[in-house]
């Protein structure tokens, strides 16, 4: 049997997928001591920065979730940075401040310069020992500070704590697909946290030590994923990032495929840019598991998706070409072909290895899905009949993400300019 270059590439890809799947399962089942929950010894001053660009539909509810936090009112402040909004965001925030005079809320208006600049504007004014960013389309649970701030007491090297992210009230099939995706992503965040390998501190209410972020120079104003860049930078300087599942942040998911496509292009292109920017961390023993496991795999899913889909497409074209030539050789005599057709099935002709790998990966995927729902204490039926969204997620959504990665590859090759929204 002749082994082609294509077969060799596929074998290496399958091996990598199985290796990573088994590795993460071993991480999952490895024993770890459970730390007892700690309570706050005191109430440090806390700042929330809300970068807002055209968020008139959600900014009021976002601010309500912040003033309702279970935390002393005199120990917290909110800084809203209106980043050049062209809608009624500014007026709504001003009215909110008037309606809630007992809360420390500051509105800063600036011309549109991007989220990184908006964060640095707020950071320069922040008086809190700790601060968080809360996107103006996200909403925090009341217990968040009580659950997240005590985690900083466990280790002086902890510089950031991430909450559990969920999609808020998914309505259509696409939002329910993202609801499933977020839940499964939290499972992988759980695994990464076990190895101190978290590579992104999400915009919705990740909490940072103010002094540490200021010491590192604030947020990068040129990247399209400042939350991923700052997390990798923290890892570079040997700080720890912790994940908790006791504080929930809900965020509004895109309603249309077009908006989702733009969001994911921004996220994944930012991953590519920052992986290249910090390429010296890859396979660097100085950074332990983060250097050997997390950094090389940040964009590996995209590379694997491109390889597998390109291989599938090439195989499909080859078979269609072969069938076309065969039909051409018999002058497209379909009637005779149908009359002489006989079903010839031989088990030995099946691609056993590929089927084994596919079934193994499918089994692992189903296990991960079930475990993820248990981990975040959700039920698949929470939002009614979700069979269509599950089918879409399992069998269609992957093709959509593959298209995203192909577009990113096109952006890289053609040096196409990044976009923020």
Compact overview of the structure:
This protein is α/β, with parallel strands linked by helices and 421 residues long. 52% of the residues lie in helices and 13% in strands.
Spell the H/E element sequence.
HEHEHEHEEHEHEHHEHHHHHHH
Terminal Cα separation, in Å?
50 Å
The CATH class label of one domain is Alpha Beta
- Tell me which oligomeric state these chains represent: single chain
CATH fold-level assignment of one domain: Spore Coat Polysaccharide Biosynthesis Protein SpsA, Chain A
Strand percentage lies at 5-15%
Average pLDDT score: 88
Which structural class matches the secondary elements? alpha/beta
Strand order of the largest sheet: 3-2-1-4-7-6-8-5
The level of helicity is 40-55%
Overall geometry: elongated
Question: How is the main sheet built?
Answer: 8 strands, mixed
- What is the number of beta strands? 8
The CATH superfamily of one domain bears the name Spore Coat Polysaccharide Biosynthesis Protein SpsA, Chain A
Number of helices: 15
Low-confidence stretches: none
């Amino acid at each position: 049997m002749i082994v082609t270059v294509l077969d060799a590439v596929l074998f290496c890809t399958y091996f990598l997928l199985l290796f990573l799947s088994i590795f993460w399962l071993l991480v999952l089942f490895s024993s770890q001591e459970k730390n007892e929950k700690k309570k706050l010894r005191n109430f440090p001053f806390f700042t929330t920065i809300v970068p807002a660009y055209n968020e008139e539909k959600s900014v009021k509810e976002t601010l309500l979730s912040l003033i309702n936090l279970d935390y002393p009112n005199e120990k917290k402040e909110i800084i809203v940075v209106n980043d050049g909004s062209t809608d009624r965001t500014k007026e709504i925030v001003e009215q909110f401040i008037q309606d809630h005079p007992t809360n420390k809320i500051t509105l800063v208006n600036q011309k549109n310069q991007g989220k990184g600049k908006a964060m640095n504007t707020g950071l320069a004014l922040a008086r809190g020992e700790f601060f968080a960013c809360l996107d103006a389309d996200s909403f925090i649970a009341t217990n968040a500070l009580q659950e997240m701030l005590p985690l900083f007491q466990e280790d002086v090297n902890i510089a950031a704590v991430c909450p559990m992210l969920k999609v808020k009230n998914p309505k259509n099939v696409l939002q329910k697909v993202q609801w499933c995706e977020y839940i499964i992503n939290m499972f992988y965040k759980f695994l990464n946290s076990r190895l101190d390998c978290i590579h992104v501190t999400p915009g919705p209410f990740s909490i940072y030590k103010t002094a540490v972020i200021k010491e590192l120079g604030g947020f990068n104003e040129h990247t399209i994923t400042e939350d991923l860049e700052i997390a990798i930078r923290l890892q570079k300087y040997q700080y720890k990032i912790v994940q908790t599942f006791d504080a929930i942040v809900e965020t509004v998911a895109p309603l249309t495929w077009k908006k989702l496509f733009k969001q994911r292009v921004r996220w994944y292109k930012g991953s590519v840019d920052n992986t290249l920017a910090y390429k010296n961390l890859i396979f660097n023993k100085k950074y332990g598991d983060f250097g050997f496991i997390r950094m090389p795999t940040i964009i590996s899913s995209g590379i694997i998706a491109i390889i597998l889909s390109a291989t599938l497409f090439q195989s499909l074209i080859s078979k269609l070409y072969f069938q076309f030539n065969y039909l051409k050789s018999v002058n497209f005599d379909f009637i005779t072909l149908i009359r002489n057709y006989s079903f010839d099935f031989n088990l030995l002709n099946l691609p056993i290895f590929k089927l084994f790998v596919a079934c193994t990966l499918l089994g692992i995927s189903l296990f991960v899905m079930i475990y993820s729902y248990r981990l975040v204490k959700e039920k698949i039926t929470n939002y009614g009949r979700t069979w269509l969204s599950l089918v879409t997620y399992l069998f269609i959504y992957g093709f959509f993400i593959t298209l995203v990665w192909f577009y990113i590859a096109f952006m890289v090759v053609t040096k196409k300019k990044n976009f923020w929204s």
